[in-house]
Design brief:
Length: 222
């Protein structure tokens, strides 16, 4: 695990930073794919966990959630408008993705449904962070913001790599994986307006350049 800020750690992944999982205080944020469960649990063997929270319910973030919550006997939390996706089988894959992609994700990535113990809403507190509703990529996408040192756990509101090539660079999440790109752009503007000193994203390395994020947000179509 790599320390990014006080109480914020990035777990090791393969390839590095392709799909990110964070330990924030004693809360695990996101859980990659079903394939990643062993790797995540090995890295957390010495960590006390009180809960597992999701930025959003997609196959590359909720894949290992059921197993980890069950094995560690901890509650699962996610944004209120993603609760149904987490609890109802067959509703995790992004609806606009090509059928072959969705079949692949169902077969290798998607984790089983799991009951959501707490539906998170704007202003809720999680491990010293404040929940921000950042819809668009999914209806219930949320981010976690800590004002004191301006740290943001941003999920897939923005990517710091091209998710298809792995090359670094700021990007909107791909439209085929995004429920409502225009709403997601509003969420990008919302997080950019905070001028975060550190942005921890779902895909790609950490971004420590609020001006770069601001310039990216300013150029987006509405
Ligand atoms: Zn993702």
């Amino acid at each position: 695990m790599r320390k990014l800020a006080d109480d914020v750690y990035l777990l090791g992944g393969f390839p590095p930073s392709a799909i990110n999982v964070y330990l924030v205080g004693d809360v695990l944020i996101d859980a990659a794919t079903r394939q990643a469960q062993g790797r995540i649990e090995r890295q957390l063997s010495d960590s006390d966990l009180s809960a597992h929270a999701l930025t959003h319910v997609h196959p590359d973030h909720q894949g290992a959630s059921h197993r980890i919550c069950t094995d560690r006997d901890i509650p699962l939390w996610c944004g209120e408008h993603d609760v149904a996706a987490m609890e109802v089988a067959g509703s995790v894959t992004p609806p606009k993705a090509p059928a072959a992609v969705r079949r692949f994700q169902e077969r290798f990535w998607v984790g089983p449904p799991h009951p959501v113990a707490r539906a998170l809403r704007e202003g809720d507190e999680v491990a010293g962070f404040t929940v921000l509703e950042t819809p668009g990529h999914t209806a219930g996408h949320i981010a976690f913001w800590r004002q004191s040192d301006r740290v943001l756990i941003a999920g897939d509101v923005i990517n710091t790599i091209n998710v298809f090539t792995g090359l670094p660079g700021l990007h909107e999440p791909p439209a085929i994986f995004t429920t409502d790109p225009a709403t997601n752009r509003a969420s990008i503007r919302k997080i950019a307006a905070l001028e975060p000193a550190l942005v921890c994203v779902g895909h790609g390395g950490p971004l420590r350049n609020p001006a770069k994020l601001g310039a990216f947000a300013a150029k987006l179509a509405s």
